[in-house]
Amino acid sequence: MVSEIDAGNGKMRCELPIGVFDSGVGGISVLRELVALMPNENYIFYGDSAHAPYGTKSLEEVRRLTFADAEFLMQMGVKALVVACNTATSAAVKLLRERYADLPVIGIEPALKPAVRAAEHARILVLATPMTLREDKFCELMHRFEKEAEILTLPCPGLVEFVEAGTLSGETLEEFLAELFAEYLQHPVDCAVLGCTHYPFVKPVIQKVLGADVRIFDGGEGTARETKRRLAESGLLNPSGQRGEVALYNSLASEETMQLARRLLGPL
Ligand code: DGL
Q: Residues 74, 77, 79, CA angle at the centre, nearest 5°?
């Protein structure tokens, strides 16, 4: 049990909030899973909507932005960092772990493993940002499972922007996806992996366009479980027994963005 007193506010370290961040509002899909699994924890979520999307930027730029996001949360005093962004995880999680070696840093990766386990030699489509699919982290993951399934990848530039604009349904989005998925409407897949934390917010439309038979997976729940495991291992679970609080921050800070963030968070 870590019983260290935090220098800033005199709180026990285990009572401090968990810091969660993303390039924008997408990481709220992971935040929801965290709250569902650990309702007694306090959370600070930071979305960098002013700079979203990350997935089409250079590696150097994404690393710089990711460190700025992490630093924002560190300044607020958090006991752990959850990188609720596949793109930032693939670009910088190793470097974050080196910089913040004294606290748990949990990343997210496309939920390929549960998709592979779900069916015998399935045809699996991984949807993610161009950077996630290009970086070594995902290439290694894919390599691990390539004998057990047929793994196809599809970068989805432009999809994050729909979610950032609060467009979670409608004809324009459906047409965009139908065009993006054209190849897989002709040659259907068994499973789709949502390898970007924005995509769960448009899951019903993705399901509608890909077809009702396609099983869809995302990494939010697995990341929440891994966060709980890492906190327990470090003696950092909040023992309060009372429901915690969720604070939302965003680099855009406009009323519209904060409203969207609250809408995506929904009732807890
Ligand atoms: N939400 C992000 C992810 O999980 C990044 C989207 C972006 O900014 O391109 O990859």
A: 90
Most informative mutation of 46, 86, 163 for ligand 1 (most atoms within 8 A of CB): 86
Specify burial of residue 64 (Cβ count, 10 A radius: 0-12, 13-18, 19+). Answer: middle
Q: What is the DSSP letter of 13?
A: G
**132 CA distance to ligand 1 middle (Å):** 8
Question: Residue 54's domain spans which residues?
Answer: 13-108+220-265
Ligand 1: atom nearest CA of 87 is: 10
Please check whether residues 130 and 196 belong to one and the same domain: yes
Annotated catalytic residue 85? yes
- Within-domain flag for 1: no
41 with 99, same domain: the answer is yes
How far away, in angstroms, is 176 Cα from ligand 1 center? 18
Say which CATH number the domain at 54 has: 3.40.50.1860
Residue 82 near residue 30 (C-beta atoms within 8 A): yes
User: Do 28 and 102 belong together in one domain?
Assistant: yes
**Catalytic: which of 14, 85, 156, 191?**
85
For ligand 1, residues with CB inside 6 Å are: 22-24, 26, 52-55, 85-87, 129, 132, 160, 196-198
- What does the pLDDT profile of the chain (268 residues) look like in tens digits? 333 444 455 579 999 999 999 999 999 999 999 999 999 999 999 999 999 999 999 999 999 999 999 999 999 999 999 999 999 999 999 999 999 999 999 999 999 999 999 989 999 999 999 999 999 999 999 999 999 999 999 999 999 999 999 999 999 999 999 999 999 999 999 999 999 999 999 999 999 999 999 999 999 999 999 999 999 999 999 999 999 999 999 999 899 999 999 999 998 7
Active site residue 191: no
Return phi, psi of residue 19, to 5°: -90, 130
173 and 229 assigned to the same domain: no
Give the total number of structural domains in the chain: 2
Centre of ligand 1 from the C-alpha of residue 4, in Å:
34
User: Which H or E run includes 219?
Assistant: none
Please list the residues that pair with 114 across neighbouring strands.
none
